[in-house]
Amino acid sequence: MSTLRFHALKEVFNHKPVRVEENIRRSELFGSNVFNESTMRQYLTKEAFESVMDAVGKGSKIDRIVADHISTGMKEWAISKGATHYTHWFQPLTGATAEKHDAFFETIGNGLAIEKFGGGQLVQQEPDASSFPNGGIRNTFEARGYTAWDPTSPAFIFGTTLCIPTVFVAYTGEALDYKTPLLRALQAVDSAAVAVCKYFDKNVKKVNASLGWEQEYFLIDNGLAMSRPDIVLTGRTLLGHSPAKGQQLDDHYFGTIPNRAMAYMRDLETECMLLGIPVKTRHNEVAPNQFELAPIFEEANLAVDHNSLLMDVMDKIAERHNFKVLFHEKPFAGVNGSGKHNNWSLSTNTGVNLLSPGKTPMSNLQFLTFFINTIKAVYDNEELLRAAIASASNDHRLGANEAPPAIISVFIGEQLTKVLDELENVTNGKLSPQEKTDLKLNVVGKIPDVLLDNTDRNRTSPFAFTGNKFEFRAVGSTANCANPMTILNAIVAKQLIDFRNEVEALISKKDMKKDDAIFNVLREYIKTSKPILFEGNGYGEAWEKEAKKRGLSNNKTTPEALKAKVSKQAIKMFDDLGVMNKVESEARYEIEMEEYVLRIQIEGRVLGDIARNHVVPTAVRYQNILIDNVKGLKEIYGTSFKNLAKEQLNLIEEISNHIEGINSNVTKMTAERKNANAIESLEKKASVYCNKVKPLFDDIRYHCDKLELLVDDELWPLTKYRELLFTK
Ligand code: ADP
Ligand code: MG
Fold first, then answer.
1. Which residue, by CA, sits nearest to atom 17 of ligand 1?
2. 297 ligand 1 Cβ < 6 A
3. Which one of 52, 171, 187, 576 has the largest count of C-beta atoms within 10 Å of its C-beta?
4. Residue 61 — pLDDT band, cuts 50, 70, 90?
């Protein structure tokens, strides 16, 4: 008999809520482990402080001598907080975070030692980069990689290590990480948006993209999770029969948070406070043992770092509470999966949210300009936006009728639809004074009022306007937000540049007034981008048909979707904006395709192993018990045994059929994998994994799950769904 499942179940009873003390107010804890503005004032010389602030605000370079001062101050602060080591903290293209710790400790001869951390060590390091994915960049250029300090994201202490957020680039300049293109995209949207803002307010000097992510996750008892090889190796269950009760009663969503989970959350939030991650909201999600955590939004680069850091912290704190956090988009079949809504907006240094309707007709025209340009950007780049969220794990979620479909569309609500309808009819060419007054009074001027009633929030939309921001809902829960944020900010930057050029052309060539030119360009945008607007049910089949008619893409799988990243149009756009050159774009495509293949390959191997080595032997064992039983009945009852053994004989046959089903499908899957592995072209290989290997998972699973229902519970080796999902 398998003991791991039963051992884990027994252990669960010893897992009590961990006591968590919260004696200090959160506002006081907030940022205590961050080298933030107030700490810098305390530990840095005036010159060093100003130099960092300039680097953050204006992107200016930090002088090497000043860097020495900064590192000294940083070290003093870190040591005072109990830190012993420092690390450059970066996000290689695995999507996870990477760190290599070095001690401050250094020997100075004569058996003496000091604590040392120089400007050089702060500014640049050379981790051995050969084991990180590089998509051929480093082979092409035979260059090593280095990490370089990103002063726009403050250093922090985690545990006893000073972590310095850095970019990771090849010596030839190509980005080997997610952060570098993000910073470049943020720079691009900043300058493009500032130029457009000048039409409305000459004082705008900087535009920041903001991001507020909402992280969904499952919390599973660690022992139970560890008893499942599929969870350990792939982050999700590859088999398991649905429990009699799932989420149909809706009794978990927004319900009372279970005690153990609550203790975990409080502990986690305390750590977040120390690290300056402004988490604010926590609640139960739809599926059993599923939860959500959301912060107050921040500048996008910092928010991306904070989300990556949060995911690390969540894992670490979970150990203390005997939990395992599942970030996978679809850890359990039959109940909801997890996403990571990316709430996004643009705001100026003058404190204006450009996607929030204002109080005057002028500020509303500014709002409409950014609003309509965003819609146009999404329309022109819908396939690229779909590619931004493509991964093997998110494929389970998109279009699975619980999350937005793989079709990108924009929801704006009834009221704004009306506004756009009116704007679509403005005169072609110069507007009459009467028309302008009318527009200002009755259309543009009315927006703040109408938005107040715009409470309808279509949950099936992948990209929804929610009053003062867009919510990109199709992002997966495991995603590094840098990827979707780079693409979204880049396409909006490109769009704003085009917009300005078109307005300028009308002003200079057609002698139009600024307002007239803006109305004219917006009118055309509204007309052309109409197909992307959709207010209906995104889960329905009718939408799939309608979207096809409208010419929208519906790339259901990652290998199909990713191609948009290397389309001529995308490569050119990223290159023109300075976000990624051709090599960098192609490298990311290759890495993501490769990752897709590897994930499916691993899942196939794990499933094959569990099915053959865990499920089949268990089924045979149970079948043998039945056979013994039948033999016994025959011995006692002679020829009339058949009547008494009818059910057992049926079961014996059914079990044999399922065993056959498993074995033949596993054999088929292994053959398909071998076939795929021999294919040279990455694209073709990914396609075989997607279309030949993966579908067999369902067939294998079907037979395993049937056996789970037939075999004696006491023999079943794999912790069951009801145990994983309902153990609190
Ligand atoms: P929900 O979408 O769950 O109803 P909210 O609309 O209150 O919740 O906000 C969800 C998330 O949106 C939060 O993380 C919040 O910080 C973020 N958010 C709010 N305003 C903005 C903004 N201007 N830019 C980016 N994110 C924002
Ligand atoms: Mg939301």
1. 212
2. yes
3. 52
4. confident
> Mean pLDDT score of the chain, rounded to an integer?
93
Ligand 1 touching residue 278 (CB < 6 A): no
Percent of the chain with pLDDT over 90: 77
Q: Judge: domain 595-726, CATH 3.40.190.10.
A: no
Asked if residue 693 has pLDDT above 90, the reply is yes
CATH homologous superfamily of 31-177: Glutamine synthetase, N-terminal domain (3.10.20.70)
Task: Output the CA 343–ligand 1 centroid distance in Å.
Answer: 6
- The CATH 3.30.590.10 domain(s) of the chain lie at 187-580
- The closest of 58, 54, 25 to 40, measured between CA atoms, is 54
CB of 212 sitting under 6 A from ligand 1:
yes
What does the H/E/C string look like for 183-222?
Answer: HHHHHHHHHHHHHHHCCCCCCCCCEEEEEEEEEEEEEEEH
ipTM above 0.85, yes or no: yes
Residue 566: pLDDT above 50? Answer: yes
How much is the pLDDT for 1?
Answer: 46
* Cα–Cα distance measured from residue 624 to residue 619, given in angstroms and rounded to the nearest whole number: 9
Q: How far is ligand 2, taken at its centre, from the CA of residue 470, in Å?
A: 10
CATH number of 187-580: 3.30.590.10
Are 532 and 364 contacting, i.e. CB atoms less than 8 angstroms apart?
no
Report the C-alpha gap between 279 and 295 in whole angstroms.
Answer: 4
Q: How far is the CA of 362 from the centre of ligand 1 (A)?
A: 25
Q: How far is the CA of 212 from the centre of ligand 1 (A)?
A: 6
Q: Provide CATH 3.10.20.70 ranges for the chain.
A: 31-177
- Residue 453: pLDDT over 60: no
Gap between the Cα atoms of 393 and 663, Å rounded: 26
- Reported as a single tens digit per residue, the pLDDT across 189-239 is 999 999 999 999 999 999 999 999 999 999 999 999 999 999 999 999 999
Half-sphere exposure in the Cβ direction for 596 (13 Å, CA): 34
Nearest atom within ligand 1 for CA of residue 343: 26
Nearest-atom number in ligand 1 for the CA of 467 is 6
Provide the whole-model pTM. 0.95
208 CA distance to ligand 1 centroid (A)? 16
Nearby residues of 425 by Cβ (< 8 Å), 6 or more positions away: 523
DSSP 653-678: HHHHHHHHHHHHHHHHHHHHHHHHHT
Instruction: Tell which one of 279, 291, 297 to mutate to probe ligand 1, the residue whose CB is within 8 A of the most ligand atoms.
Output: 297
What would the pLDDT profile of 5-32 be if each residue is shown by its tens digit? 999 999 998 999 999 988 889 999 999 9
Task: Report the residue among 283, 310, 343, 481 best suited for mutation to probe ligand 1: largest number of ligand atoms under 8 A from its CB.
Answer: 343
State in Å: Cα 180 to ligand 1 middle: 25
